[in-house]
Amino acid sequence: MTDENAIVKRLDALFVECFHIEVPSPDTDLLEGGVLDSLQFVELLLQLERRFGLQVKVDDINLDDLRTLERIARLVARNGGAAATPAARPALGGPG
After folding, report:
1. Nearest of 75, 69, 74 to residue 14 by alpha carbon
2. Residue 78 C-beta-side C-alpha neighbours within 13 Å
């Protein structure tokens, strides 16, 4: 299994855990299809930081990178966040 495939599986689990949403497929457009609303989108960015160590500056957000689980997985893999685990990342406001 490639890193991106493993990340897609973790992202799929994240959507079920955090949003109670089962994404139909890794290439489903999350924004155009209305899968995520604006508050969930912000929560997604927070979860990507916590679970994968991905830090995206507001000025650097490219919505195309966040449209599908596949694209998010590529973004995470490109930024070296694939190895981060929930236990490896301190919670916001916590020590670290």
Report:
1. 69
2. 9
Place of tokens 């079920």: 16
Read off the pLDDT of residues 14-66 as tens digits, 9 standing for 90 and up: 999 999 999 999 999 999 988 999 899 999 999 999 999 988 787 888 889 99
64 touches 71 (CB < 8 A): yes
Reading the block at residue 57, the tokens are: 């500056």
For 5-61, the DSSP string reads HHHHHHHHHHIIIII----S-TT--TTTTTSS-HHHHHHHHHHHHHHH-----GGG-
The full set of domain ranges for the chain reads 3-85
The CATH topology of domain 3-85 is 1.10.1200
What are the structure tokens assigned to 28, written together? 């489903």
Half-sphere exposure of 66 (CA within 13 A, CB side): 21
Residues in the chain: 96
Residue in this structure with the two tokens 């969930």, named with its chain if needed:
40
